[in-house]
Design goal:
Blueprint (H helix, E strand, L loop, with lengths): L2 H8 L6 H11 L5 H9 L2 H11 L13 H8 L1 H14 L13 H19 L7 H10 L3 H11 L3 H11 L2 H8 L4 H11 L4 H8 L10 H16 L8 H14 L3 H10 L1
Length: 266
């Protein structure tokens, strides 16, 4: 981690109380569906954000979800926690992703599409991992915000764009110009905010899942890696990105059939 990026992370404001309450409920083995609903319903703006996310056509529900209890019932506590944390975290940053050649709306859609594909692929087949996969898919790209800030501060926008074009790999370009990559910065942000270790490890190891310490974390990191390859930075899924994702699925011995079915539904 570079000194400049580490300084930016340490200067981040603490997460609001609502995020801490959500985490406390989610991490408490004695908490219930209703406990999560009650916490979320205390914040009308957060409730509106969650319902907007849950009603995205990316998830393919035929009827409108108009209550938090419905959202928790359909998606589960882990996924709704992901909706909530994504909304809260992104409001903690001033966004300018111009060094990557994408707008703020494109960046938001990138996270939504990655999460949508994770949900379509894993909500049933890998349900036990959704508690970590859901927030990880929403939040893994947040490190780009601080990397973009550093590129702008160093006046290296042109060099960064050239590296992106030449290397055709976002993480390699980030490391060449800034000295860190998105998963490393994102994991450090959530370490600063004291998120649970499992989520931090999945995000931090999603470029090299084999280095994860336990099998569940390793598997979740592999899934996240596949999804990030399938849905590249511009949010456009292409034949090339799908082919690259399928190569990873074979390498990681994941379920190719369910991935292909998820893509069809997605």
């Amino acid at each position: 981690m570079t000194e400049e990026i580490l300084k930016k992370i340490k200067q981040l404001p603490p997460l609001p109380e609502s995020a801490m309450q959500i985490e406390a409920v989610y991490q408490d083995p004695n908490s219930t569906f209703n406990d999560m609903v009650k916490i979320l319903e205390q914040d009308p703006l957060l409730t509106a954000d969650i319902l907007k996310a849950a009603n995205s056509p990316l998830y393919g529900f035929s009827r409108e979800i108009n209550a938090i209890s419905q959202a928790v019932g359909l998606f589960g506590m882990g996924t709704v926690r992901g909706f909530a944390l994504a909304s809260i975290v992104k409001k903690s940053f001033a966004l300018d992703l111009s060094p990557y050649g994408i707008s703020d709306d494109m960046f938001s859609m990138l996270s939504k599409k990655q999460h949508g594909l994770v949900t379509a692929w894993c909500l049933r087949k890998e349900n036990k991992l959704m508690g970590v996969l859901s927030p990880a898919a929403f939040l893994v790209e947040i490190g780009k915000v601080l990397i973009a800030q550093q590129v702008i501060a160093d006046e290296k926008q042109e060099a960064f764009r050239d590296a992106l074009k030449e290397l055709q790999n976002v993480e390699e370009a980030e490391r060449e110009i800034v000295g860190v990559d998105t998963p490393e910065v994102s994991a450090s942000i959530f370490t600063q905010w004291k998120f649970e270790t499992n989520l931090i490890d999945v995000i931090g190891h999603c470029e090299d899942p084999e280095k994860a310490e336990n099998e569940d974390t390793k598997r979740a990191a592999k899934i996240l890696h596949v999804v990030r390859v399938a849905v590249p930075i511009n949010g456009v899924i292409t034949d090339a990105s799908i082919a690259a994702a399928k190569e990873l699925i074979e390498q990681y011995e994941l379920d190719l059939e369910s991935f292909e079915k998820a893509l069809e539904n997605f």
